[in-house]
Amino acid sequence: MNEHKTAISRTKESRPVRDLLKIGAICGRVLDYGCGKGKDTEFLLKKGFEVLSYDPYYKPIDMRTAGKFDTIICNYVLNVIEDEKARIQLFKTLINHLHNDGKLFITARPVKDITAAAKKGSWIKYKDGFITGKKTFQKGISGEYINELYAMAKTIISSNKLDHYVSNKLDHYVSNAKYSIICIQRAKFYPKL
Ligand SMILES: C[S@@+](CC[C@H](N)C(=O)[O-])C[C@H]1O[C@@H](n2cnc3c(N)ncnc32)[C@H](O)[C@@H]1O
Q: 189 CA distance to ligand 1 centroid (A)?
């Protein structure tokens, strides 16, 4: 529902991208999936990374020919998808574009953040989330819920050698509830950060 309207006009890169870069988690060929208006892509390009961006509304490129990536970031997309099957499908798509030793970072707005915004903006409860004043869908996403979605996605993904974790180096941001995050990579490379 009006997913594209959830894309904010950032004046600079998102916090997760800033944090991931700070801890050296971004490397190689990068995919910014659900890039919105593209500030993170712009930032990473300026830092010298090779970046491809995709968004169903702002950058609807054909992902079938996009190939594989060393780093995939998917920031604040999960919290705007209202259908759980589509959330699980998102994991599947992202994992299919991950190189063998690649890292996938999925972040989302945490429950605390959405609950406070819903109260302040008198958002209306809808399905397992809310309809905002802009008539968009938002759901607070906990780290546990991302793990659950990933567990469900794993059952439809052929490789069972994937593992996931949140780096200790990211604990600070996560425990401050700035965003929920998961890092997914193949088990044999775990933990890399
Ligand atoms: C809140 S914005 C985040 C944009 C950007 N990642 C950022 O952090 O600035 C959510 C974006 O997700 C996109 N989106 C919605 N459903 C999607 C899906 N199933 N797959 C990929 N992107 C999706 C929307 O078009 C929108 O641009």
A: 28
- In whole angstroms, what is the distance from residue 75 CA to residue 173 CA? 14
Is any atom of ligand 1 closer than 6 Å to the C-beta of 90?
yes
pTM score, whole prediction: 0.94
Whether the CB-CB separation of 75 and 163 falls below 8 Å is answered with no
Q: Any idea where the domains of the chain sit in the sequence?
A: 12-110+139-188
Highest mean pLDDT (candidates 6-10, 135-139, 150-154, 157-161): 135-139
Q: What is the pLDDT of residues 84-124, one digit of tens each?
A: 999 999 998 998 999 988 999 999 999 999 999 999 999 99
pLDDT exceeds cutoff 60 at 160: no
> Is the domain defined by 12-110+139-188 classed in CATH 3.40.50.150?
yes
From the CA of 79, how far away is ligand 1's center (Å)? Answer: 9
Question: How many other β-carbons are positioned within 10 Å of the β-carbon of residue 117?
Answer: 16
